[in-house]
């Protein structure tokens, strides 16, 4: 009896200690979790929200916004709605609240920004009440239902404008979803281009990185260290310096063209820079360490006796590599490939500097909308599109390859 | 160092006491840093402090309406800022910039018409120009944007700034549209077609630059035979690297104006206005132009500029007649649509 009780006590104590240890371990990760929450999860949620946020009109014209939400749409708006909207335009102009709403409406159709600003300016010099005829006398677009439908859409609490736009879709005057005209349909193309560039760079990194990692893992320590410094050197150099160096190397009268000409391989200099190949070369250079390091660290753990065993059992060197070494190194390869691919998806500076106008990736357009036109809706929608496409690809990868096959070392 | 601890303590106390009034904020003037702000310091900031006996603190920024919004919503730290046209228009509409007292500035008629705005006064004129390497072409250099698009007469690559802005204006200039009708034409669908068709005619020979430092470098490396460029960069490359780059002013150029503005939340609006009035004096504008090749916005500053410099700057005679004022309203409204269009065109 006593022995049994003692055993139970011991078991309980072990359980408690174990739980305490797990708690302590969890507590140690808390700062990181809090950091991730504040600087990673919340901003991403904020970004997703910005992509559908539609508050510009509510901030500038609160009363009209409520009235437009209540209006069922179709045809011309009722006179009291027109009057309230026009009066509030004048008020908002005086209070300098109109600019962001005018810009928001311009996203519905180019030209509506000046329409709003001009109309408010003219109305300020007139006496209320205002009716549709007054507005139409200022600009005949007010007589068309399209502008009222656009304002009604701008009044809603949420909008699908940006999300549709990055899928090359838009709503027509009747509110149906239609494809945008071909000369403005760019974003799906750019998304496909982004994935294509990331894929080519990943394959190039693999082709260069795998043999290099093999050499690193099998050379004598002294040589391996030297090589390793060579691999890591780009890590310690500024991204901009490396990119600029590639422009110098690849340009028309740069060393590469000189060398090829000296060797007699070409007569006229090749066009290398400001084209897609320059983007591939520069990005591969920048991202190569991210492939080499995980592959190398996995290769280090493959014991040479496995391959020797295969050879002694009669396998040719090629078979021994293919059937034994390659499968053992695969977890490092998948980890490296995933790392390079996902990093490559977000590239911006390198293609902007060494690529041409048709080599820009999605981040370039995110930067365009955030820094140049201050259109947070489009920037957030593009960011969300990239995020969702990447997650979908990752899930597909996890399904096909399995996350447990991933090893960083 | 000799001296008793007591004396040291007294000295420290004296320092603290002397430093205390400095805590009251001085007028803060914000500009674009680098060589440009160095020139401003010499031509404007230091003479201002000397003449008025007032203090002035400098800061630098990289533009962006977001930065202005943030400063306007917080406690006052910036008073006077040099902004580009977009920030002037948007900032004024949003009420984060204060209206100026044009009486103090000497009246609107003293300035270029494009330099006059409710919330801002132009301070410099800068331009995007057609530039080439003078050593490459003998006595028949390119003289027009039509030459830029003529790859038979002038074979080789040429560069434009990536995106539709200025590229479309230059395409229409090359297609024979007079300067005063460029934006009217560009506002129509046919005009946009026409501009893109012109770009299409030399698409394979076009290279697109991203940063203002690139055009001189592209010319220097022989990567392109001619390029659009910011005029200041071309003159600077000639000065600092001994290049022989030339600007074809007569081909036509697009000019923009940077303005002085006052943030609406500034608690030193009077002093800020005095500073802007000082900086806008013709002799100060001419002094700045002598240091860095940007044109004055005051009409009466033009005659004060040394003759050997006047050929290098936009907006004043003899180059005045070739300039097209960059239509900020047109571009604020059309930039997203035309950028999409530009990228669809580039990907074809």
Topology of this structure?
The complex is a heterodimer of chains A (409) and B (348).
Chain A: H1 2-50, H2 56-60, H3 62-70, H4 79-94, H5 98-108, H6 112-123, H7 132-138, H8 145-155, H9 161-166, E1 169-171, E2 177-179, H10 187-218, H11 221-232, H12 239-250, H13 255-262, H14 276-299, H15 304-312, H16 317-345, H17 349-354, H18 362-372, H19 376-400
Antiparallel strand pairs in A: 1-2
Helix pairs in contact in A: 1-19, 3-4, 3-8, 4-6, 5-6, 10-11, 10-14, 10-16, 12-14, 14-16, 15-16, 18-19
Chain B: H1 5-19, E1 27-31, H2 34-52, E2 56-60, H3 65-73, E3 80-83, H4 85-93, E4 97-98, E5 116-117, E6 120-133, H5 145-148, E7 158-161, H6 167-174, H7 182-186, H8 189-201, E8 206-209, H9 214-220, E9 226-230, H10 231-241, E10 245-247, E11 253-263, H11 269-279, H12 282-291, H13 307-310, E12 323-325, H14 328-347
Parallel strand pairs in B: 1-2, 1-3, 7-8, 7-9, 11-12
Antiparallel strand pairs in B: 3-11, 4-11, 5-6, 6-9, 6-10, 6-11
Helix pairs in contact in B: 2-12, 6-8
